[in-house]
Design brief:
This protein is of the alpha/beta class. 63% of the residues lie in helices and 10% in strands. The chain has a domain at 2-318: ABC transporter type 1, transmembrane domain (ABC transporter transmembrane region fold). It is built from 20 helices and twelve strands. The strands form three sheets. It has a six-stranded mixed sheet. It starts with a helix and ends with a helix.
């Protein structure tokens, strides 16, 4: 894990190394200052030697300036290294998510991915900054202060060997308890983000059903859970501060009692015991040693808090996309013919039954294919296998006579345009949204595609025309307008295969007929697969595929199916009767 995260440092590697080096310099100066002050008192102030006083004063000033310089440099380099590390980590995670297949994304909820890219990375950034500063400062301060105090008085220094194990035991008792709580908290954050995301996304539904109080209640429940866990963790961590204070005051009292006796016994002569200046230095070292332990405990807390985020981000970084381009991948799609050969598919190995079973189909290039079936009959699942959004469990899917697994993924998906059930538009102008289909499309091409999709009429009705701003998710256009814009965007790819997954459901029958007529006249060489609920939308198709419970119930044109398929005829008659009623 450490090796993988270390790769995120990249250009900030040297910055991360320089910060601890500067921190060592700062600590060295801080430990030197008490020794200089002891000499200032013992050999300057106590004996009235002003020459020594001025010399030691200049030394103190120099040590303070050097310490300040090293401290500023260390903080500067640490902040740059930490923010740069966080930026690279987000970059690597985001790019990894872009390579995920649908099944990879299904493994993580969208709310969880957002949490990992935001708050989890922020916690890791804070922990990393603490590591390259305090995790170096505290041990160095502890070691150097201990050595210096041992040089002054080995007898008095033994008090530290009693205090340090006590604090260590307290810390070891706290760590496991707090780790479990923080691990639970970050999972709860995922649930919180899910609630917020669902509420904001479906705010119109919430308001139309007057369910604001219910949503607020859900939010309060999860927010209260996070609050309770953090309070519990803080209560446990609070034990550390009193333990620290008890040890500090116990050490100061011990050193004061024993040290004072040693000073009196020696007559302020270092050769016979302890001087007043050395005793004051021991007080400073006591504070430095025990405060280092305190800070070290805070570093441990930060490391504990970052364990869960580290693991969660590591899961994203190491998740292998299960759909990748093979070696020596095919770079050209010959035509738009499609073949399903003994295809079966399960979304999960644990699924009790396959979503698709024993599907055998041949669709010639340029054909118009209608796909009909009840909700849950796996119509969408069938077409998602063509651009290899999922891989088949058994059998094979071929495009242009070549197994889709042999194609370069980008080439395959560039030649298969798919308008999904959930039409998605992005914030930006209409032109910017359309150019998702072809980034280099000229304005004339945009207009032509929109005319084919019957979108040009309403676009030109906007005051700014094709420069009209689209809000996030296309919230400022109607469902039918959104569908037509998405169809136009797909047409700009000039694909060999065009898949419309119930993409005209919000369009009136007249506009639907005009779109199908334009397809037939303008893109006759493109294979068109149209999933629809209305038979009128696919009645003129060359081939109609009727799906039922994950299997192909019947295949043929409209007249053939009306004569030979009771299933199809029953659907047709029920829809005709519904229209008459």
């Amino acid at each position: 894990m450490i090796k993988r995260f270390a790769q995120c440092l990249r250009e900030y590697k040297w910055t991360a190394l320089v910060s601890p080096v500067c921190m060592v310099g700062e600590v060295a100066m801080e430990v030197t200052i008490p020794l200089v002050m002891a000499d200032l008192y013992d050999y300057g102030i106590a004996v009235g030697n002003m020459t020594v006083v001025w010399q030691k004063a200049l030394q103190l000033l120099l040590c303070a300036l050097v310490s300040l310089t090293f401290g500023v440099l260390s903080a500067n380099y640490a902040s740059k290294a930490a923010t740069g590390f966080a930026r690279n980590l987000r970059h690597d995670m985001y790019y990894r998510v872009q390579d995920f297949s649908f099944s990879n994304i299904d493994k993580f909820s969208s709310a969880s991915i957002v949490t990992r890219l935001t708050s989890d990375v922020a916690n890791i950034q804070m922990a990393f900054q603490m590591m390259i500063r305090m995790a170096i400062r505290c041990p160095m301060m502890l070691i150097l202060a201990m050595v210096s105090s041992m040089r002054i008085s080995p007898k008095l220094s033994t008090v530290y060997f009693v205090a340090i194990p006590i604090l260590a035991l307290v810390l070891l008792g706290i760590v496991p308890l707090v780790f479990q709580i923080f691990d639970r908290v970050f999972k709860t954050y995922d649930r919180l983000n899910t609630v917020v995301q669902e509420n904001v996304h479906g705010i119109r539904v919430v308001k139309s059903f007057v369910r604001e109080d219910k949503e607020v209640s859900k939010f309060k429940t999860i927010s209260k859970s996070i609050y309770d866990d953090f309070c519990k963790a803080e209560h446990i961590l609070a034990v550390n501060a009193p333990a620290m204070q008890i040890c500090v005051y116990a050490c100061i009292l011990t050193i004061s009692w024993v040290g004072a006796k040693m000073v009196i016994a020696s007559g302020n002569n270092a050769a016979f015991g302890l001087t007043t200046g050395e005793l004051s230095s021991m007080f400073t070292y006591t504070t430095q040693i025990l405060s280092s332990l305190m800070m070290l405990s805070m570093v441990f807390v930060m490391v504990i808090m970052s364990q869960a985020p580290l693991r969660r981000c590591y899961e994203i970084l190491t998740e292998e996309p299960n759909l990748t381009s093979p070696e020596n991948a095919v770079e050209t799609v010959p035509d738009g013919s499609i073949d399903f050969e003994n295809v079966s598919f399960r979304y999960s190995r644990k699924a009790k039954r396959p979503a698709l079973q024993d599907v055998n189909l041949h669709i010639p290039s340029g054909a118009t294919v209608g796909i009909l079936g009840a909700t849950g009959s796996s119509k969408t699942t069938l077409v998602q296998l063509i651009p290899r959004l999922y891989d088949v469990t058994e059998g094979s899917v071929k495009v242009g006579g070549i197994d889709v697994k042999n194609y370069d993924l980008e080439v395959l998906r560039d030649n298969v345009a798919m308008v999904l059930q959930k039409n998605t538009l992005f914030s930006g102008s209409i032109k910017e949204n359309l150019r998702w289909g072809n980034a280099n499309a000229a304005d004339e091409e945009l207009v032509h595609a929109c005319k084919l999709a019957c979108a040009d009429e309403f676009i030109t009705g906007f005051p700014k025309g094709y420069d009209t701003h689209i809000e996030q998710g296309g919230s400022n256009v109607s469902g039918g307008q959104k569908q037509r814009l998405c169809i136009a965007r797909a047409l700009l790819k000039k694909p060999k295969i065009l898949i419309l997954d119930d993409s005209t459901s919000a369009v009136d029958t007249h506009t639907d007929a005009m779109i199908r007529k334009a397809f037939k006249e303008e893109i006759p060489g493109t294979t068109k697969l149209i999933i629809a609920q209305r038979i009128s939308s696919i009645q003129d198709s060359d081939i109609i595929i009727v799906m039922d419970n994950g299997q192909v119930a019947c295949v043929g044109d409209h007249d053939t199916l009306m004569q030979n398929s009771d299933f199809y005829r029953g659907i047709y008659e029920s829809q005709q009767k519904g229209s008459e009623d």
